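Quick one:
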Amino acid sequence: MGRALSSDLRERVLRASAEGLSARQAAVRFGVAASTAIRWIDRARRGERGPRKTGRKRASRLDAHEAFIVSLIAEKKDITLDEMVLRLADEREMTIGRSMLSKWLRSRGFT
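Output:
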């Protein structure tokens, strides 16, 4: 994986490109890889001027059981995490920890 480059450097490459330099010429001028300059310029043309989030979005084992979990909450508004963990284990054979379920729920806007 490459190193993180500053937003200022990205803006200078984009400005040089807008002033008429090719992506490869801008890359040489500012010491970045030609592929990086090409990608930055292409994304800027589509309106994406900032860096993307790093890392990858990881899927959760709970994603496959989302409808079931939402139905648990719908049928009993004050259901506890412990009760949900037990129901997942009993009815879906899904063994998880309470903290994992809590994190998953918070990521989807539940409190």
